[in-house]
Every structure is written in C-alpha cells, then in structure tokens.
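To: structure desk
From: M.T.
Subject: fold request, one chain
Message: Could you run this one when you get a chance? Sequence is below, nothing fancy, just the single chain.
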Amino acid sequence: MPKVSPLDLAAVDPAIWYVFVKDTVYGPYTLGQLQGFVAEGRVTQNSLVSKGDSQKPQRASKMAELQAAFIERARSEAPEAPVAPSGPASNYVIVTQLDRTSDVDLIICMNGLGEFASVFPGTFILSSTYRLRDIQRALHEATTLDDQIMIVNASSGRLGWLNIGTDTDIHLREIWAKADDSKTEDET
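Reply: Done. Structure tokens follow.
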C-alpha cells in the first residue's frame, strides 16, 4: 500500500495576512481566518491589512481576495426599509463619491430599497417603489457628511442629492429648472 502524506494546510492557505489597528499589528493569519473576521464584522472595508511582511498596509476594500467576503456580509445583513413602499417602481440613477462610508454599507442600504446593479465604480441603477425623498433619507442615514451622492429619478425626471455644497446646490437647481421650463414650453 502506498504511503499517503498528510495535507499541508500551511501550503494551501499560508498565514501571511496582517491586520493593523492603531499602533498594533495582529497576525499572521490565513486568508480563511481573515475572511472569517470579515463575516464577523471584526475586519471592515476600512480596516488596514497587508498580505505578507513586505506589503504596505491598505484598506481591506482594496484587497481582491476579500471582496467576496464583503459582498456575502452585505447580503447577510437585514436591511431596514426607510418607510413603506409608495407605489409603482421607478428607475433611479445613483452616483456616489464616497469618502468615509464603505461600499458594503451602501450596498446594505440599497438592498433594502429595491433591486440594483453597479454600472461603474460609484454608479448604480436602482429599481425601487420608494419615493426620491425616502431614498435620500435612507442613503443619508447610511453615509457620512463627507460622502457625496446624486440621485436621478429617471422615471419622473426629478433630481436629488446629498452633501454637495451650497454653490453646487444652487447651480444644479438652476440647470434642472431650465430643463423643466423648456419641457413646459415644448408641451404647450
């Protein structure tokens, strides 16, 4: 009978991952352990991690090996709906520039609003029965004041936004009002 060697788990999933918290470095961990930390919420998208001794620490959200774990965590969390749905579905385009909020937090929020797809980084299409103001409220609660968001109701032509600043707010209102005025003149 041939001799069977035991499986060397260190070769399959080596302990080469480190987690940085303030001035302390934890590890080394295996990828499986790190993915478990993501599932538990102990490692977030903003956590600093490195793969190997010589790699510079970076946000966990930038590590391709952890993306599936972050997506699975987002799917497993029960989203809270802002209010009861308001009627037929509308199509929304949501453009984000996130500074402090993680992509996972945004995905958890949008899961509660309807069906969505990511088009480009930071740009989403959402089909939702919620009104624009309810979507704004939900996104406001899921993000920080450093995050900027623009929401277009493609079904009604209404526009909403969060945290874009006073000058941009005024300018957007002027441009959007011109489009509404030209529709009224063309339709009469």
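Reply (cont.): The two ends are 91 Å apart (CA to CA). Let me know if you need anything else for the meeting.
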